[in-house]
Amino acid sequence: NITWIVEATGDENNTYEFFVIFEMDYRQNWSDKVNITIAYSVNLISPTNNLYTSQNSLNFNCSSFYNNGLNNISLYGNFNGTWLLNSSNEVSGTSNISNWTLNIGEGNYLWNCKVCDAWNNCNFAQQNYSFKIDNTKPGFESLNYSNIIELGSSQYITINITENRINYVNISYLGLNQTMYNYSNIYFFNFTPRLIGQIDFTIYALDIVDNLNSTNASFIVNDSTDKPLIKSITELEETLHQNEMQIITTLIYDKEPLTVNLNFNGSNVTMINVSSYNFTYSWNVMQCGLVDYYIYANNSNFSNNANGSFTIDLCCGNNLCETGESCSSCANDCGTCPTTTSSGGGSGGGKTVTPKDVTSFVIAKTSPSNPINLEIKNEYLPINSLKIEVNKEINQAKVKVSGVNNLPEGINEYNKKVYKYLEITTEKITDADIKNAKVEFMVDNDWLANNNIQRDRIAFFRYKDGWTEQKTEYLMTINNKHYFSAEVSGFSIFAIAEKPNEIVKEKPVEANNETSITGAAILKEEVPKEEFWNKKFTIKLFLIITLIYISSIAHFIVNKRKIKL
User: Domain 355-502, what fold?
Assistant: First the structure.
């Protein structure tokens, strides 16, 4: 038996002859002729193949065309669990589109249409179409959060969503609606509430076919301390020029109304309460050198204070002719400019632009029970948070995070591709004071693609007597950015960069224990690669010539027999 599979390439609705010719030794034999008609096509229009929906009412339609006329079009499906005829429409003419509307429950289904002509020749579409109806809402499991937190502390919320096809998961609290982040099916969010008492929140989960589910919960915010809690102090600029504007912002938590004052250069001013617990003050600084300031927070019975400082690096009147000053801008420091009648150019000075990729913090107080948790919202820095656990109480510490365009002298560049060099410095916090420190950073996916680097090849490196890889963990990917977390033992120059290539250790060759009569090791002769391939080619050539010779003899014998016949 011989089987042929032939693709029907002729026109639909036409008949073609099919037969087989058998030929051997100049003899031929013809098989019977069979007429084959290429059937008309059936087109399934909707629901589309692999449809995924939450709609129970669906419109089914299919179409067909036949020159000799159509008789009926029928809908088939397993809508009740068994493949059956569902409905049939009597039709006429050469073309038709038939429609049916069905109400179907949740599940996975197949459907097709069968078309028959006036001679009861029938045909289905080439394949069944499938669809799925999903009416199940996303489920919630393992909602975790703290039932009671202290005012000024962060609330961390995690929840497991039992649905893979998620559109979004949002959390609503205090009139705000925020998107939760996720790692696989675990969604998480953290925030610092600025109210005392019960805080209600709702989590919403919507899948891709619009099944919505929600869950509600609440927690309590207490204020167990009598003194106002000065959570953080932020300066607009850590270094600026004389007569430029400085803005000091502080976040202070307390259960009572507060009065907050700022003291600098003998002046005592009231800071403006911009929003809940948020106080600020701005002024043009006329001092020179280091400027110290103090913040005093008072409620009805208790007070607290913190202090910080910043630097004026270009000051006219300190008897120093600094970079950026000239005789024309500050004669007191640089002297009077000489009078001249020539047309030459004069000296000039310009303001040194403060880099944008710098963020500084003043931490009023940190201790083992009150770690530092900084959110870095600077679009020019690829770091989004910094967490520091200390092993002792430290007051008035400073943390500065900045980008590095030119490495300091004596520090060699990292020898792989670098996304960004950074520097993290601290005042009053030494490496010995640090129990744990963690940096969360991000890398743009376009940079990885352009440099042909996989996500798992990214790590955080610290320079301390050489570049050392820090323990780095991938967190998640959001909006074309990959987020990572790195544990560091201290602060200095860092690099977000590609990991070095892994060195594959070759397995050592075991010595052959066989020895000759004289006791010398027996060595296997290594054939040079070129000589090896020459020998291989010679063998192949010999085999080919031998086959040609045998074929020629066989052909000669066959022809000789034919002549005798």
Answer: Chondroitinase Ac; Chain A, domain 3 (2.60.220)
Cα(439)–Cα(456) distance, integer angstroms: 17
Distance CA 68, CA 242 (A): 95
Q: Where exactly are the structural domains of the chain?
A: 1-131, 140-222, 233-335, 355-502
Q: Please tell me the distance from the alpha carbon of residue 416 to that of residue 457, in angstroms, as a whole number.
A: 11
Query: Kind of pairing, strands 84-90 and 155-161?
Result: unpaired
How far apart are alpha carbons 226 and 255 in whole angstroms? Answer: 9
Q: How many CA atoms lie within 13 A of 454 on its CB side?
A: 5
3-state SS class at 533: helix
- Helices (DSSP H) in 91-153: which residue ranges? none
Q: What CATH code is assigned to 140-222?
A: 2.60.40.10
Q: Are 256 and 277 within 8 A, CB to CB?
A: no
Long-range contacts of residues 542-545, Cβ cutoff 8 Å, at least 24 apart:
none
Local structure of 243: helix, strand or coil: coil
pTM beyond 0.90:
no
CATH of 1-131, one of 2.40.50.100, 2.60.15.10, 2.50.20.10, 2.60.40.650: 2.60.40.650
Mean pLDDT by 10 residues, the chain (565 residues): 61 61 65 61 94 96 87 95 94 92 96 90 92 96 95 93 93 94 94 89 96 96 89 90 92 88 93 90 89 94 93 76 67 55 37 64 83 86 93 88 90 93 93 94 94 94 94 92 94 94 55 38 40 55 72 63 47
